[in-house]
Design goal:
The chain is α+β, with helices and mostly antiparallel strands. The chain folds into 2 domains: 2-54 and 126-184, no CATH class; 58-124. The chain is built from 4 helices and 11 strands; from the N terminus they run βαβββββαβββαββα. The chain has a 5-stranded mixed sheet with strand order 1-2-3-11-10, with helices on both faces. A hairpin with a 2-residue loop joins strand 7 (101-105) and strand 8. The longest helix is centred in the first third of the chain and has 18 residues, at 8-25. It is elongated, with a radius of gyration of 22 Å. The protein starts with a strand and ends with a helix.
């Protein structure tokens, strides 16, 4: 982690704040690199985060067995591990509609008149969960009142350029420079 500011004391305080928030949100180990550039005279705040790779997505076949019943036009899903059942239900409600999903007991889910192909259905993606937590941390770190934000996200890099004034091109260029540094390390 690197915090860059013309004021060394200000940089040290901001580094402490960043560390505290990352620990609070529990993403410290999931961050490969983090850069903050602060210049209160401008006013400008840039944060660039490089995420580590999270574990593989959980797909429906990892914790269920399912079979289509042609006679009743129903899909029967047998739950082998309840850990991801809430995520599965949420996903099924999203793609099939809540009224078509039935759960007669905790180990069985039935879909009436299924339309979606369940094969390989991603039920939970830890990388998405990680990104949500990191965004939560970032928005806690950004200075109060800095609501003009330019956002860049590609692959495992998240970058925000923040100010309380009109965004300047030179600030966006500075963000691009920091992103390039983080990518090359």
């Amino acid at each position: 982690m690197k915090v860059e500011c013309y004021d060394e004391n200000g940089a040290a305080v901001y580094e402490m704040i960043v560390r505290h928030i990352l620990q609070e949100v529990q993403v410290t180990r999931s961050i490969g690199d983090l850069r903050v550039y602060v210049d209160p005279r401008e006013p400008l705040f840039i944060i660039v985060v490089k995420l580590e790779k999270a574990s593989q997505p959980v797909v429906i076949e990892d914790f269920t067995e399912y079979e289509f019943n042609k006679a009743g036009n129903e899909m029967f899903i047998k739950i082998k591990d309840e850990t991801y059942l809430p995520d599965l239900l949420e996903k099924l409600w999203e793609i099939e509609g809540r009224n078509k999903i039935h759960q007669p007991n905790r180990y069985e889910v039935i879909i009436d008149d299924p339309t979606a192909d369940l094969q390989g259905l991603v039920v939970r993606d830890p990388q998405d969960d990680l990104k949500k937590k990191v965004y939560d941390a970032i928005f806690r770190i950004i200075p109060e009142g800095f609501r003009v934000i330019d956002h860049k996200s590609e692959d495992n890099i998240i970058a925000l350029t923040c100010t309380d004034e009109m965004m300047k091109d030179e600030w966006l260029k500075k963000t691009d420079e920091i992103i390039a540094e983080v990518k090359n390390e």
